[in-house]
């Protein structure tokens, strides 16, 4: 029997996934689940053929170039791959894979939770109750932004953006979107395409960010672009923190230009900018978009299906191409 491929597993993934990878690979694991520094990843990579990582490990050009020649594939337990320098990996002949599709529904659900949580003051109302401060029902208390009939602008109409659109249509929202190209999919015929982000921002009563983080989208939501949005808009981000410049969003929430924000991601995770904490109009979650038992198992199985295919010389299910 051929020797099992050697695999560095940087995080502690769900039990079913760990059992499968321990069965099929000679695995080096990180049972403490501590986030490994790049130097530790490099040290542990000396005698393995592959790496299974999460979005928490950064494989910059420098790290990729320093990897030993024995590393042939990096499978990331995420759909987003802004933490991997794909061009550097391609130059070094390292294959990359990710986990699209399987987390679409879970992430779109959290986008709607953020949208409703922000619009309906879920944080401040629940906090008032939990802290024993709620004295009585009052007609002018915890007043949110009405959702029905409003315009939802979706930035990035890939799988997750489309799933957000479908859900929001159930709330009778009007869907607008910006994407590289218009989408032509059943059920979304009524969605209005905007060729430019400027055109989209101008109609966003609500904005849902569903694009990847790249040099083009870094800090796209800054002072200048927030100013293009209607007054009292609501901003939702379930994509990547770096797409919003937090200082700009904090200014806009403080001034009231932006009525509320629902964030599952933010800059410098896990450290939330402390200036957000004074804001009752922020509904914030700790990056739980894909966090259901079913989804996290499916993500792990997809990583392992990709690794199995790679070592059996079969095409990958989801290879990241530059
Ligand atoms: C991951 C995510 O759980 O898939 C993504 O891109 O943001 C999350 O679903 C996280 O990145 C850990 O890998």
**Tally of DSSP β-strands:** 12
Mean pLDDT over all positions: 98
Named CATH topology of the largest domain: Rossmann fold
| Ligand roster | 2-keto-D-gluconic acid
Number of helices: 11
Major sheet: size, sense and barrel closure? Answer: 7 strands, parallel
Tell me which CATH architecture of the largest domain applies here: 3-Layer(aba) Sandwich
Number of domains: 2
Low-pLDDT sequence parts: none
Q: Strand order of the main beta sheet, please? A: 8-7-6-9-10-11-12
Order of helices and strands: EHEHEHEHEHHEHEEHEHEHEEH
What does this structure look like?
The chain is of the alpha/beta class. It folds into 2 domains: 6-102 and 293-311, Rossmann fold (3-Layer(aba) Sandwich); 104-284, Rossmann fold, CATH 3.40.50. It is 32% helix and 15% strand. It has 11 helices and 12 strands. A 7-stranded parallel beta sheet has the order 8-7-6-9-10-11-12. A 5-stranded parallel beta sheet has the order 2-1-3-4-5. The protein is globular and about 70 Å long. It starts with 5 loop residues before the first strand and ends in an 11-residue tail after the last helix. The model has no long low-confidence stretch (mean pLDDT 98). The structure holds 2-keto-D-gluconic acid.
């Amino acid at each position: 029997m051929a020797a099992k491929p050697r695999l560095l597993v940087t995080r502690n993934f769900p039990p079913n996934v760990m059992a499968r990878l321990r069965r099929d690979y000679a695995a080096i694991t990180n049972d403490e689940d501590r986030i490994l520094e790049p130097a530790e990843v490099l040290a542990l990579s000396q005698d393995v053929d592959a790496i299974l990582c999460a979005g928490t490990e950064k494989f910059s050009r420098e790290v990729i170039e320093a990897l030993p020649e024995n590393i042939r594939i990096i499978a990331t337990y995420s759909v987003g791959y802004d933490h991997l320098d794909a061009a550097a990996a391609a130059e070094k002949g390292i294959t990359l894979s990710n986990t699209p599709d399987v987390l679409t529904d879970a992430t779109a659900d959290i986008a709607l939770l953020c949208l409703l949580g922000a619009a309906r003051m879920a944080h401040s109302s629940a906090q008032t109750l939990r802290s024993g401060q709620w004295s009585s029902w009052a007609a002018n208390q915890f007043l949110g932004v009405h959702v029905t009939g409003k315009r939802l602008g979706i930035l990035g109409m890939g799988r997750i953006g489309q799933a957000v659109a479908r859900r929001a249509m159930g709330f009778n929202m009007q869907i607008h979107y910006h994407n590289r190209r218009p989408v032509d999919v059943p059920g979304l015929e009524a969605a209005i395409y905007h060729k430019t982000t400027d055109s989209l921002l101008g109609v966003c009563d609500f904005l849902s960010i569903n694009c990847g983080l790249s040099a083009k989208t870094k800090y796209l939501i800054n002072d200048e672009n927030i100013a293009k949005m209607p007054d009292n808009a609501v901003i939702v981000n379930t994509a990547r923190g770096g797409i919003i410049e937090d200082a700009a969003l904090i200014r806009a929430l403080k001034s009231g230009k932006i009525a509320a924000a629902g964030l599952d991601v933010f800059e410098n995770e896990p450290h939330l900018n402390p200036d957000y904490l004074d804001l009752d109009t922020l509904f914030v979650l700790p990056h739980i978009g894909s966090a259901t038992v079913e989804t996290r198992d499916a993500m792990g199985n997809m990583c392992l299906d990709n690794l199995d295919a790679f070592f059996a010389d079969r095409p990958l299910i989801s290879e990241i191409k530059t």
